[in-house]
């Protein structure tokens, strides 16, 4: 079991060396699995809101469970609206992933909603988990919130690829995150996640973002896409998750039991 990551810079270890955050996705909403992922040793847990049923009350419980296991809560929200960015941070997300960010204007909107001044215009509040329940002075709480939270723009379309440099130059944005599935659709290669051109573009985006001083992440299964992303410098990787892992394990288990036909004694 790992200890809780309680540093402002999630991407550097206790010796101040660069580190890669390794995570798994959580679709089921199970607080036990969120905690288990951290206890196993994953650095972060992806809490899904865009494609999942969780409300922010549940997200708060999942953030607590993730941190109890020693991992960092990552919350993927539905879009860049203030109500989604702000509430994810208020309930305790350390990393916020915002889907379908196609231009710098949207990236600036994320920072405006997610960072306190001078970086943004996050709404004033002193009593939520995200600002330490009001147990420290307001100036310190807001400064620490800015330092300890990471806003990522998801690059999922050809338009976002074209605008990558402008997106990365937005102050206060921590980095970009490649969504291979939607990017494959935008490229006309729907679901072909092993396509060499898709892999090349994804790796190039990561390399360009890292060259501009931003963090870069990806969601990918083990294989050529993940290998290329890591070689390009990705420092936030999610690989597999609760539903996909259980589906495969249970399918294999069922196959091992045979057809279910009654055999003679």
**What is the end-to-end distance?**
47 Å
In CATH terms, the superfamily is Phosphoenolpyruvate-binding domains
The helix/strand class is alpha/beta
Number of strands: 8
Helices, by number, come to: 11
* Helical amount: 40-55%
Task: Report on the biggest sheet.
Answer: 8 strands, parallel, barrel
What integer value in Å does the Rg equal?
19 Å
Question: What oligomeric assembly is this protein in?
Answer: single chain
How would you describe the shape? globular
Assigned CATH class: Alpha Beta
List keywords for this structure.
single chain; 265 residues; alpha/beta; TIM Barrel; eight-stranded parallel beta barrel; 11 helices; 42% helix; 15% strand; globular
Care to describe what's here?
The protein starts with 20 loop residues before the first strand and ends in a 9-residue tail after the last helix. Strand 7 (215-219), helix 10 (224-232) and strand 8 form a beta-alpha-beta unit. It has 11 helices and 8 strands. By secondary structure, it is of the alpha/beta class. The protein has an 8-stranded parallel barrel with strand order 1-2-3-4-5-6-7-8, surrounded by 8 helices. It has helices spanning 31-40, 56-68, 82-90, 104-114, 138-148, 158-162, 164-168, 180-186, 196-211, 224-232, 242-256; strands at 21-26, 44-48, 72-76, 95-98, 150-155, 175-178, 215-219, 236-241. It has one domain (21-245): TIM Barrel (Alpha-Beta Barrel).
Give the helix/strand layout.
Layout lengths: L20 E6 L4 H10 L3 E5 L7 H13 L3 E5 L5 H9 L4 E4 L5 H11 L23 H11 L1 E6 L2 H5 L1 H5 L6 E4 L1 H7 L9 H16 L3 E5 L4 H9 L3 E6 H15 L9
Parallel strand pairs: 1-2, 1-8, 2-3, 3-4, 4-5, 5-6, 6-7, 7-8
Helix pairs in contact: 1-2, 3-4, 9-10
